[in-house]
Amino acid sequence: GGYYSSALPEHLRNLPLYRRGMSDEEKLELAKLYDERSRWACTPMGSPDSKGNLRLRGPAITERVRCCNVPKSMRRPRGHKRPTTSCTPGECGCGITFTVPIDDWSWDWQWPLYGTTRWLKSYDRRPAVESTNAEIRTNRFRFHRGCVRVKGETRTAILLAFMLAALNMAMTADWFGTDWLELMDAETPPLKLVRRSKATVAKHRRTEGPPG
Fold first, then answer.
1. Exposed, middle or buried, 89 (CB in 10 Å: 0-12/13-18/19+)?
2. Higher-confidence residue: 99 or 202?
3. How many other β-carbons are positioned within 10 Å of the β-carbon of residue 73?
4. Closest CA to 6 of 59, 63, 82
5. pLDDT tens across 67-113, in order?
6. CA distances from 203 to 197, 199, 209 (A)
7. In angstroms, rounded to a whole number, what is the distance separating the alpha carbons of residues 207 and 143?
8. What distance, in Å, lies between the first and last C-alpha atoms of the chain?
């Protein structure tokens, strides 16, 4: 998913992939390795040009690593956040800029870099959105063509806000395993979260369309 300098250490070249069922702790531990590898990555110099060509620069130019072939980078303090490469004097990929045509980078390159903590946070946003779509369209409500019978973006947005508010109420009640009215009257929140069994999940309150 990225372009790296040849100075990339061997132990960071073939990292394991994320797999289904990993715990949050396991994901964060793996992300640390990808974050470490990202220091050797070439970074973009702005957006692609009018022809789709992408300009990249080596990691020593941005001083993410210290390389003997880039004197400016060697003046930066040594540390785990700015490792020193094993390059020998001469030409290397740490201090160069290069252009990649769209036919090459569009297939594999992605930013943020795959596996990093930044990528992980961005990736988790999509499952969250898809889960919300599934809840309002299938699991709890029946949001389909014809449900919204008002005209104009403002009116539609207001109506959708009421639908999402009702969805949050239903999801909160199911999560705590109690009725919403009981949650409203409770002086303190329930002490224990309730994860529903499959039988309970199958009994979601459903309507022919969103409430309202």
1. exposed
2. 99
3. 23
4. 59
5. 988 888 888 877 767 888 888 888 788 888 899 898 888 888 888 88
6. 10, 7, 17
7. 10
8. 46
DSSP assignment, residue 211?
-
Task: From 114, 90, 120, 81, select the one nearest 4 (Cα to Cα).
Answer: 114
- Which pairing describes strands 97-100 and 43-44: parallel, antiparallel, or unpaired? unpaired
CA–CA dist 117, 31 (Å, integer):
5
pTM of the predicted model as reported, rounded to 2 decimal places: 0.61
Could you give the CA distance from residue 139 to residue 147 in angstroms, rounded to a whole number? 16
Give residue 192's pLDDT: 54
Give, in order, the Cα–Cα distances in Å from 212 to each of 25, 146, 161, 208. 41, 13, 11, 11
- Identity (one letter) of the amino acid at 71? P
More confident residue, 208 or 132: 132
20, 23, 29, 31: CA torsion to nearest 10: 50
Give the CB-side neighbour count of residue 73, counting CA atoms within 13 A: 23
Confidence label for 33 from pLDDT (cuts 50, 70 and 90): very high
Question: According to DSSP H, which parts of 93-134 are helical?
Answer: 102-108, 117-134
Token representation of residue 69: 């072939």
